[in-house]
Amino acid sequence: MIKVGIIGATGYAGNELVRILMGHKDAEIVWLGSRSYVDKPYSSVYQNMFRIIDDVCRDDNISELADNADVIFTATPQGYLAGILTEDILSRAKVIDLSADYRIKDLPTYEKWYGITHGSPGFIPEAVYGLCEINRDKVKNARLVANPGCYPTCSFLSVYPLVKEGIIDPDTIIIDAKSGTSGAGRGAKTDNLFCEVNESIKAYGVATHRHTPEIEEQIGYAAGKKVTISFTPHLVPMNRGILVTAYANMLRKAGYDEIKSIYDKYYDNEFFVRVLDMDVCPQTKWVEGSNFVDVNFKVDERTGRVIMMGALDNVVKGAAGQAVQNMNIMFGLPESEGLSAAPMFP
To answer: How far apart, in whole angstroms, are the C-alpha atoms of residue 183 and residue 239?
Structure first.
């Protein structure tokens, strides 16, 4: 059994990690870390775990945890892991970080967009960006995995095949993305109160959202050059889900059959990426509660653009599910272990 510790177990992503790992036949949770609920029963924080988890929340002593766990998930705010990670910790346990601390390779870019000084930049080169479908071989031997953000996962998987094959001009990419409120975390914020979000939709982080450089960096790797995109997220009144609609100019004329064959080339053997049938648009309700990403596209001959679409559950494939998928790869397990459940509906 893989012994698992979770720091930040009482946030939305942390609780989803717990839920997924409780159904994982090769994993055992040995540490439920939480600054806010130390010594309180975990099921008193999340009543859905009543009579399922009897353990209490512990502190966030990662050094002690490293002696008790084979892998540590850190579902914590930006800057937390970077401030405490050491070579000694990594020598004793693998770490999968769900924050942005090690996602961006360019240090000045990270510090500019996140407004903090990185606490351990020496580990940035080693950290593997854990987008499983793209970096699977690197994840296998990693000690430190930077679990991708929810918006970047959905955005990148939607556009990646056409960027990689040179069908679209990556500098013309415009990404319109919408997320449920769980993406903002469990902390109390006025902007996330029911009366603030219900019956409304709004753009936020316009031209300043922190996931922008992460998306640009990953698209740049696929394109083989530095890329600049436009990315605008929106908050919608639902619990879970991300929907991405991306637009880009075509570099040459290509029809449906050719583009479909490109998507199939990259995703036919990817269990968690589902390329939908012609004219079927991704919807968040068909991926809710699952680790699946649904993608599709539409060729707009009138404008010479391709419209690329994707949908995922921001708490699962956008966070905890992808983290467990990375764990499975790191320990040589089937990627779908603990993650093969069908999406929930209704």
So the answer is: 8
pTM: 0.96
Assign 170 a pLDDT band (cuts: 50, 70, 90).
Answer: very high
Q: How far apart are CA 203 and CA 242, in angstroms?
A: 14
- Quick one: how far is CA 120 from the chain centroid? 22
- State the average pLDDT for the chain: 97
Tokens representing 26?
């090769």
CATH superfamily, domain 2-126, is: NAD(P)-binding Rossmann-like Domain (3.40.50.720)
User: Domain map of the chain by residue range?
Assistant: 2-126, 151-314
The number of C-alpha atoms within 13 Å of 275 and in the hemisphere containing its C-beta is 21
Active site residue 150: yes
Tokens matching residue 5: 């510790």
**Residues above pLDDT 70, as percent of the chain:** 100
Would you say domain 151-314 falls under CATH 3.30.360.10? Answer: yes
Give the lowest-confidence range in 2-16, 51-65, 180-194, 275-289: 180-194
Cis peptide before 346 (omega within 30 of 0): yes
- Could you give the CA distance from residue 245 to residue 295 in angstroms, rounded to a whole number? 10
- How confident is the model at residue 44, as a pLDDT? 97
Residue type, 217: E
Chain centre to alpha carbon of residue 147: 6
Q: Give, in order, the Cα–Cα distances in Å from 343 to each of 32, 201, 290.
A: 26, 25, 5
Of the residues 57, 150, 154, 195, only one is catalytic, namely 150
Q: Residue 189, class by beta-carbon neighbours within 10 Å (0-12 exposed, 13-18 middle, 19+ buried)?
A: exposed
Distance CA 167, CA 169 (A): 7
What's the rounded mean pLDDT across residues 179-201? Answer: 89
304: pLDDT strictly greater than 80 = yes
